[in-house]
Amino acid sequence: VPILAVVGRPNVGKSTLVNRIIGRREAVVEDVPGVTRDRVSYDATWNGRAFTVVDTGGWDPDAQGMAERIRAQAEVAVTLADAVLFVVDATVGITDADEAVVKVLRKSGRPVVLAANKVDDQRAEAEAFGLWNLGLGEPYPVSALHGRGSGDLLDAVLAALPETPEESFEEIGGPRRVAIIGRPNVGKSSLLNKLAGEERAVVDDASGTTVDPVDELVELGGRTWRFIDTAGIRKRVKTASGHEYYASLRTTTAIERAEVALLVIDGSQSISEQDLRIIQTVRDSGRALVIAFNKWDLVDEERRYYLEREYERELVQVQWAPRINFTARTGWHIDRIVPALDAALAGWETRVSTGTLNAFLGRLVAEHPHPVRGGKQPRILFGTQAQSAPPTFILFTSGKLDAGYERYIERRLREEFGFVGTPIVLQVRPRE
Ligand code: GDP
């Protein structure tokens, strides 16, 4: 859903206009400098199109002076929004703070719709003409209070917003894409055979390429799943030199084409360097991950003891991945694979609304503030989830955060929103 950010000085009627756009009267409160509201984003529709309205007035950027304060808000707005609604008070005209915003908006290249508010009747419309001087195109005269002109304004907003953003995976709603990965002989092809059984369809959509990937469509749990590059699993490619390189290239490409990686590890053997390299590849790819320990029939009491120690020590970076112990040979616990893939994909695609996220960040900071560094205490000013798949968060802060504090934020995000089976990307943008 495209995002519209509303920017403007306090008292220009921004909140009233946001209420008008979202069709509610009570939701948005007036700006109070120094107060961060816990809710800044709202769902809106106009002419059947949905979009999200972000009211930057709800964000206190901790800046000195009015012009600086709203300039900082405008910067946040252009970072996260697809289009900006810039609200000016037509009865006051252009102020220095407005000029500062215009500079930020111009530089960003984002589409801007200019609202000339407080034009309550036809006579007042002349006051909006002066706003042409801002160089942002046509000012739309509105009365947020009475609703006058808001239809035309919303039409202009829709025109400025992009059509629903393109999804990165071409087959949305199509089969989920799984890459079975792992070093040779861990049981990938045994697993695939057990999962696919008889009823599998081979889909070759990239023939002619040197690696000759072949996908298989498999019915599991009443749905169709696409297993990526099964040729790489079924064919025993063993050339004397470069075998591992070739295998790792193949693994990387399969992960790139997949949404979720199903990493198979031989539970009966020590976790190897090669296992760790493959895990690193998945982490770098930003894909969802499920870890499956195979050959559980060979895991005795003693091996189990060491396996758990290795798991805690070597796989600490991916403790968030759902884990299964199974035996491909007998099919034991094979039925746990689909629920684990589902959980990982759900976590990978989770979206947290900006309002919920900032309310959570407020609580997090209250529970455990950032330590003071050199007499200063960096503050989290505003956060937004810029993307899902994988969940990617941008945090605007007043200064650099300690690495330990960033890990704390990630851990709390996982606890709060249940990000199972997915890496989380945290981008901290200190304002300096
Ligand atoms: P891949 O190279 O990862 O595809 O591994 P394969 O599926 O070819 O399996 C390698 C070897 O491990 C074969 O001899 C399999 O029979 C054996 N294997 C696979 N799964 C199991 C299992 O659950 N238990 C035991 N004991 N052996 C297994």
From TrEMBL:
EngA-type G domain boundaries: 2-165, 176-349
GO biological process terms, semicolon-separated: ribosome biogenesis
Pfam hit, one: KH_dom-like
CDD domains: EngA1 (cd01894), EngA2 (cd01895)
Keywords attached to this entry: GTP-binding, Nucleotide-binding, Repeat, Ribosome biogenesis
SMART domains: AAA (SM00382)
NAD among keywords: no
Binding site for GTP 1: 8-15, 55-59, 117-120
Membrane-spanning intervals of the chain: none
GO molecular function: GTP binding; ribosome binding
Residues annotated for GTP 2 binding in this entry: 182-189, 229-233, 294-297
InterPro entries linked: AAA+_ATPase (IPR003593), G_ENGA (IPR031166), GTP-bd (IPR006073), GTPase_Der (IPR016484), KH_dom-like (IPR032859), KH_dom-like_a/b (IPR015946), P-loop_NTPase (IPR027417), Small_GTP-bd (IPR005225)
Family: Belongs to the TRAFAC class TrmE-Era-EngA-EngB-Septin-like GTPase superfamily. EngA (Der) GTPase family.
Subunit structure: Associates with the 50S ribosomal subunit.
Role, per record: GTPase that plays an essential role in the late steps of ribosome biogenesis.
Protein name in the entry: GTPase Der
Organism: Nocardioides pocheonensis
Name of encoding gene: der
